Amino acid sequence: EISKLSIIWNFKWILIMNTRIQFIYVQKKNYRQEKKRVAKELLSALKDPSVVIMSNWLKIRGSLKSWTKLWCILKPGILLIYKTPGSDHWVGTILLNACKLIERPSKKDGFCFKLYHPLEKSIWAMKGPKGESVGSITQPLPSNYLIFRAASESDGEQWCLSSLKLSSQYGVHLRTTACGFLQDAVGWMLWNWLNDSMLENHMENDANSDKSEREAHEDSDNAANENGGRLTEESDMDQSDDVCLQATAFVEEAHEEIGEVGEASQVETVSEENKGLIWTLLKQLRPGMDLSKVVLPTFILEPRSFLDKLSDYYYHADLLSQAVMEESPYCRMKQVLRWYLSGFYKKPKGLKKPYNPILGEMFRCCWLHPQTDSCTFYIAEQVSHHPPVSAFYISNRKDGFCISGSILAKSKFYGNSLSAILDGKARLLFLTRDEEYIISMPYAHCKGILYGTMTLELGGKITIECEKTQCYTELEFKLKPFLGSSCNVNQISGKIRIGEDILATVDGHWDSTVHLTEKRTGQQEVLWNPGPDIRRQRLKRQVVQIDQQEAFESERLWQHVTRAIKDKDQMRATQEKFVLEEAQRQEARERAERPWNPRLFSFNTDTNEWHYKYPEYVHNSTLRLLLIIIHKLYRKIMCFKAKLTNSIIFIDVYGFFIIIIIIGNTLQ
C-alpha cells in the first residue's frame, strides 16, 4: 500500500513539474516574441534619420575639466554625440537606460545638468549607430558620467523635458521621481543591439569544442580578425535571454623597443638647446633636494608611464611557471633570480625617464604562456601622488603564482648626479607551496649632469628572501668606478644561501651574461644571458586597444604627450603635459582635505602595505572555459526540452547541470 502511494505521489510530482516547465517555456516564448517586436520598432526608430526628439550644440566637460562644444542628438533611449552636425564624426553613444539626470549648480551662464550612472558603471555603448567601433578623437571623456551645459536656461530645460516625449511618442517608458531623475525601461535591448555583434565570433568558437586555453585564444583571435583583431579574456552570452557578459579585449602589442647591450644605450648626448633648459632647471635645485615636485623637461621623458615600465619584469613570466615546479628550495630560488634578472635588459635608448603617473591612473595588460596554456595578468594603479606611490598586482593562478606590492618613487639631486630610488617591496607567492619571496629593487643613478657624459646606471644592494625555506639571495648592482673601463659597466655580484650556508656565488653583467658558481663543487653555469635566442622567447604582451581604454588608463591619458614626443615636437609635448598636470592640480584643489580613495587597491594600516581589492576576480581561464561549455550544453538541452518525451529524464538532466553550475561558481 505504501509503495502504491509513493508511486502515485511521484507521478503527481512529475506531472506538476512537467506542467510548470511547459508553462515557463510558453512564458519565455511569449516574452522573447514581445521583446523582439518592441526591439524591432525601437531599432527602426533609431535608424530612421527623421526620428529625432531634439538636436543642438551642447558643451561637455571632459576628464581634464575643460569644455568641448559637441553636436548632440536625442533619440529614443540614446543620446548620440558628434563633432559636427553631420553624421560623419561620431564621438560616442550614451545609453539613457543606464543614466540618471539631475540639474547641476553652476556659477557660469547657461543651464548645467549631469547624466550619470548611480553605481558608477559605464554609460557608453561600444558601437555607434552605423556600427562604428572607434569614435572621433576629442579630449578624454569620463566613463560613468557626463556634465552638459546648454547655452541658456530655456534650452537646458527643453533638453531635460523633451525626454518625456519618448514615452508617448515611441513607447519607451520613463519614470520621473521628485528629484527629477529619469530612467529608461528598455535599455537592455539597446545595450544588446549595440554590443552583441562584437562577441558572436568568439562565442561560436567557445560553444562547440572542449579545447585547451591556448587553442581557445587562437581560435577567438582568428575569428576576431574580421572585427578589428580583438582578443578577449572570456566572453559568453545567454542567447535565450539576450544577456551579454563582456570582458576586457586585448590585442598583441604592435611594437617593442629594446636597447643595446652595454653602455652605448645608456648615454645621452644633450643638444645645445636642451643644455639651456637643464641649466635653467639646475638653478632651482640644491644638493640633497627631493625632485618629486620638480617639473622635468619633456626631452628626457620616455614616451610611456611608470606603471607601464613596471610591467617589464613579466615578459619572461614563464620562468616563474617553471620555478613553481622545481622540487628543491635552492632550484626554486635560482629560477626566481633568473626571472628577476630578465626584467632589466629592456631599456630605452639614451637617458630617459617614464612619465610620473597621474593620481588614479591605471595600466593593465597580460601575457599568454604557450607552454602551459595559461595567462599572466598585470594591473597597476597610482594610489598616491605626494608621495608618489604605484601599487601593482600580477596573477597566474593556473601556473600557481601571484605578485603584489607597491613602489614609492623618490629622487635626490647631488650636484653632478641624481638618483631615482624605488622604495618598496614586491611579494611573490607560490600558491601551491605557500612560499612567499620578498623582493627589493635597485636604484637608478644618473651622472654627468654638469660636466662629463650623461650616463644612466643601476646601483645598490637588493635581496630576495623566503622565510619558509630560509633561502636568501643578496645581489649588488655596482656603479662604474671613476677610472673604470667599459667592462666595469652594469656589473653585478652576489650569493645564494640557505641559513648561514653559502650555496653559490653570482657575478656578471645584468644586461648580458651572468654566471653562477656552485660553492661546494666549483662548477660554473650560465644563470642568465639575454642573447638573441632568449629575446625570441619573450612572451608577447597583450594590451587593451586605446579606443577601448577608460579615460584614466595610461596610454589613453598620455596619448597626446606621447604623440608629440614621437613627432619630436617638444613645445607641443610640454603644452600637453602641462594640461594634464594642471588638471591634476585643479582636482587636488577641489578635493581639498578629502582623502583620495583608490579604485583598485586598499591600504592596510596594520602592515603599511597596499593590497589589491579583487584578487578573487582575477581570470581563472580553465575553470571559466569549462563553465562556458557546461552552460552551452545546458542551453541546448533547454532548447530541445519540448521534444523530450520522458519528463523524468529531462528533470534529471536539468538538475544535473544546475548542480554542476552551482559547484563551478562556488569553486570560482
Automatic annotation (TrEMBL):
Cited Pfam families: Oxysterol_BP (PF01237), PH (PF00169)
What are the record's GO terms for cellular component?
cortical endoplasmic reticulum; cytosol; endoplasmic reticulum membrane
Localization per record: Endoplasmic reticulum membrane
Q: Which InterPro entries match?
A: OSBP_sf, Oxysterol-bd, Oxysterol-bd_CS, PH-like_dom_sf, PH_domain
| Keyword list, A-Z | Endoplasmic reticulum, Lipid transport, Lipid-binding, Membrane, Phosphoprotein, Transmembrane, Transmembrane helix, Transport
Q: Where is the composition biased (Basic and acidic residues)?
A: 204-220
- One of the record's GO molecular function terms: cholesterol binding
**Any one biological process term the GO annotation gives:** lipid transport
Q: Does the keyword Transmembrane helix apply?
A: yes
* PH domain sequence ranges: 51-168
- Main location group: endoplasmic reticulum
Q: Where do the TM regions start and end? A: 646-667
Q: Which PROSITE patterns match?
A: OSBP (PS01013), PH_DOMAIN (PS50003)
> What is this protein identified as?
Oxysterol-binding protein
* Organism, scientific name: Cyprinus carpio (Common carp)
User: Which lineage ranks, top first, belong to the organism behind this chain?
Assistant: Eukaryota, Metazoa, Chordata, Craniata, Vertebrata
